[in-house]
Amino acid sequence: MSASVVPDPRPHGTTLDNPPAILVESLVKRYRRADRNAVDGISFEVGAGEFFALLGPNGAGKTTTLSILTTTLAPTDGRALIDGLDVVADAAAVRQRVGIIFQRPSLDKNLTGEENVRFHAILYGLYPYAPGYRLMAPGYRRQVEDWSELLGLGRDIFRPVRTYSGGMLRKLEIVRSLVHRPRVLFLDEPTTGLDAPSRRALWTYLRDVRATHETTIVLTSHYLEEAEQADRICVIDAGRIVATGSPAELTAALANEYLVVDADDRARLRAELAERGLDPSGDGPFRIDVSTADTHRVLRSIETPLVLVRTHAPSLEDAYLEIVSRAELGDEALVRASVADPTETPGEDDVDG
Predict the structure, then answer these.
(1) Are 288 and 256 in contact (CB under 8 A)?
(2) What is the end-to-end Cα distance of the chain in Å, rounded?
(3) Coil, strand or helix at 86
(4) Which of 250, 280, 301 is the last residue of a domain?
(5) Phi, psi of 31 (to 5 degrees)
(6) Distance CA 186, CA 177 (A)
(7) Does 283 share its domain with 168?
(8) CA angle, 69 as apex, 86 and 22 as ends, to 5°?
(9) Do the Cβ atoms of 243 and 334 come closer than 8 Å?
(10) Fewer CB within 10 A of the terminal residue: the chain, N end or C end?
(11) Does the bond joining 20 to the residue before it have cis omega, within 30 degrees of 0?
(12) Domain check: are 165 and 287 in the same one?
């Protein structure tokens, strides 16, 4: 079967009384002298407090989309709203409501880590200006100390940023992005450069922030295990949305369970599997597409002595690779992943971006 998954653009629970935190409608971005759109008419919604992951290969349009939503890049066409505010017409108000961690650090390396955080807090009007850390408000000092301890910066936050390692720079950007308690937090590869314990600590804290403040989180990441925690995933390729749904929905729709078996007498095994209508693939070991519920029955039915039995449960990575490969092939048959609305929708011609 050849199919790609197309988006169900609305999160479950979004209504007129419960408006989305993010609304994107027919968004387009074409750079000067480019012959294709980097973002090609995408539409989606993200509910308040939702964890939304934006995935796709390099050059798919993820970072361009985030740049538009965070007001650092103007769209060519379409519109985007953050908390009901237009990212173009109300850019200043939008910036008050969002926090951003970009792929590349945007820190002033001539300042200390704490000075970077302090001036960010002052620019957002959170605390009055003071020329030194000890003269800042007690609430600010508590925030800095708590975040520094959480992310393992400790006293290093008072060192010049130019002396930081890549991992320390990422930790400092996380502290800075959360200082004003944003309504929507955009994370563009947020754990790049962090070791495994720091990644776990960060995601534990982000879960707490989301639960306590109903913060909406939008993530792009190459760590698919991080995206597995999302409420919904949206896959972009060549500037277009090619799939959307919960991790479980995407995995169930596109990644098959299967059984791998082998025998010393492969000819006999292949003949038996074919006779039982199991349609084995490969020259040995043989793959049999079968659900977990049917695995035991199938194995009991095989009379040829087996030397290998291995089951494969589908993962989000399997589904993601399947989605991207199908999109690259330009499939026209599109199947909706959402179990809530399985309506089929015709696709449009792909445009690279």
Answers:
(1) no
(2) 27
(3) strand
(4) 250
(5) -80, 160
(6) 9
(7) no
(8) 70
(9) no
(10) N
(11) no
(12) no
Are the CB atoms for 27 and 79 separated by under 8 Å?
yes
* DSSP code for 12: T
Q: Residue 232: is its pLDDT beyond 60?
A: yes
How confident is residue 247, by pLDDT bands cut at 50, 70 and 90?
A: confident
Domain harbouring 294, CATH code = 3.30.70
Structural domain including 150 reads 4-250
pLDDT score recorded for residue 333: 37
* Same domain, residue pair 241 and 298: no
The 10 Å Cβ neighbour count of residue 350 is 19
CB–CB of 227/55 below 8 Å?
Answer: yes
51-55/232-237 β-pairing:
parallel
Distance CA 232, CA 51 (A): 7
DSSP 139-163: HHHHHHHHHHHHTT-GGGGGSBGGG
Tens digit of each residue's pLDDT (9 = 90 or more) over 94-150: 999 999 887 777 899 999 999 999 999 998 888 999 999 999 999 999 989 888 887
pLDDT of residue 327: 64
Q: What pLDDT shows up at residue 171?
A: 81
Residues 101 and 202 in one domain: yes
Q: How far is CA 236 from CA 39, 57, 228, 233, 271, in A?
A: 9, 8, 16, 10, 43
CB 320 within 8 A of CB 237: no
Choice between 307 and 58, residue whose per-residue pLDDT is larger: 307
pLDDT at 1: 35
Rounded to whole angstroms, how far apart are CA atoms 73 and 101? 15
Tell me which amino acid residue 327 is.
A
Taking residue 148's Cβ as centre, other Cβ atoms within 10 Å add up to 21
- Three-state SS at 188: strand
